[in-house]
Design goal:
The longest helix is centred in the middle third of the chain and has 25 residues, at 125-149. The strands form two sheets. The protein has a two-stranded antiparallel ribbon with strand order 1-2. The chain has a two-stranded antiparallel ribbon with strand order 3-4. It has ten helices and four strands. Strand 3 (206-208) and strand 4 form a beta hairpin. The chain is mostly helical. The chain has one domain.
Length: 214
């Protein structure tokens, strides 16, 4: 067994046990030994997101989102079997897809005590908006990377639908966000693969921090 595979095996075991500290450590070792290992590249940044201060969340999430395309490309170019490649792609999708909504909820609800028994929000609306924009673009980019890197695989195209659909759902919910990509663009992509898919309804009141946008 190569050193790279040894580290990956340890990292995956730690991930399965929800041991983020060891997972990050072993994924770091794996990416140093094999810089073009897509799984290690992604998951090192994924576990790095959970370290540091609240003020670093946007920067760390941006770094994670930036490596999505390259990570998927490295997985596609690896010598793993097609089954192993798609398993790795699925693990990346499963890890990244819920993050935008989870971070939005965390940032919207985190408060610190203020005077006279009250509380104030930790994150200003501008920072929450930035997380949402980064995440929506990241979801679309992730689906695009899978679709482009595994064009001949129907199973991979089904996986690409997962982040695309979440991106459309969030962008329709947060329709006041100023994003470069549109839900209509990805609705068309999704329907080519899943003709039964319907465009989600627009959200009602959109909350970013203490501001409501209708």
């Amino acid at each position: 067994m190569s050193e790279e595979n040894k580290y990956l095996k340890l990292a995956r075991a730690a991930r399965d046990e929800s041991n983020s500290e060891d997972a990050k450590k072993f994924y770091d070792m794996a990416r140093i030994e094999e810089p073009e290992n897509g799984e290690a590249k992604f998951f090192y940044q994924f576990y790095s997101l959970y370290e540091g201060k609240n003020s670093e969340i946007n920067d760390r999430f941006k770094k994670l989102s930036i490596v999505l395309k390259t990570s998927i490309q490295y997985v596609a170019q690896s010598e793993d079997s097609e089954v192993e490649k798609l398993k790795t792609v699925e693990s990346i999708i499963d890890a990244y897809t819920p993050l935008t909504w989870a971070l939005n909820q965390y940032m919207n609800t985190l408060k610190v005590p203020s005077g006279q028994g009250g509380s104030t929000r930790v994150f200003p609306p501008a920072e929450i908006r930035l997380i949402c924009i980064t995440g929506v673009h990241g979801l679309y980019d992730l689906g695009d990377a899978v679709a482009e890197s595994f064009k001949a695989s129907p199973a991979a195209m089904q996986l690409a639908l997962i982040p695309w659909k979440e991106g459309v759902r969030l962008q329709r919910k947060w329709y006041a966000l100023k994003c470069e990509k549109t839900p209509e663009e990805y609705f068309a992509k999704i329907q080519k693969i899943d003709p039964s898919y319907q465009m989600p309804k627009k959200g009602g009141c959109i909350t970013f921090g203490d501001k409501n946008v209708y």
